[in-house]
Amino acid sequence: MATKLIVGLGNPGEQYAKTRHNAGFMVLDQLVKTLNLNFNENNFSGTFCKTTINQQPVFFAKPLTYMNLSGDFVRSFCDFYKIWSQHILVVHDELAFQIGHYRLKARGSGGGHNGMQNIINRMGTEKIKRLRIGINNQTRFDIAKYVLNNFLPEEQIKLDTVIANATIACYEFINCESFDLLMNKFNNN
């Protein structure tokens, strides 16, 4: 079986841990915790762990390069471990969605997300699966400042529900035969 990779995007450091831009890290942290694993390896400017679920080898990883250089980590990691782009799922924050919403997507541009666009550029393809976590609660704001703000206490309940559902979606990606069926299951909720 081809090895899979689930990557959560965010910024390293305690000062960014609870920011909107770290929604991808939050999902990966919950997934790894749920599976009783730890991010116990560091290389390629990132942290990661590996396991096998139902005979499917899978890595869980967080680039520590800062958001806009996430592709450097993903490319180096995939080259070393011989992981093909069709076996990658990237989890990242999404300004186009309200808090409480999430969506799987099979391919496409970065949609204004610099971290995702950097991965696309470094991997040389838009055919990279992603799980986008909604972080928007306003209509007008300075994007650069907004994504580096913490979630508000009243947003946390919605965020916790999304993280729980996104964790399940990531887990089901590991052994899914059809990403279209996975999208149908989770995008209709």
From TrEMBL:
CDD domains: PTH. It comes from the Bacteria. GO terms for cellular component: cytoplasm. Its main location: cytoplasm. Its EC number is 3.1.1.29. GO terms for molecular function: peptidyl-tRNA hydrolase activity; tRNA binding. Belongs to the PTH family. Catalyzes the release of premature peptidyl moieties from peptidyl-tRNA molecules trapped in stalled 50S ribosomal subunits, and thus maintains levels of free tRNAs and 50S ribosomes. Hydrolyzes ribosome-free peptidyl-tRNAs (with 1 or more amino acids incorporated), which drop off the ribosome during protein synthesis, or as a result of ribosome stalling. This is Peptidyl-tRNA hydrolase.
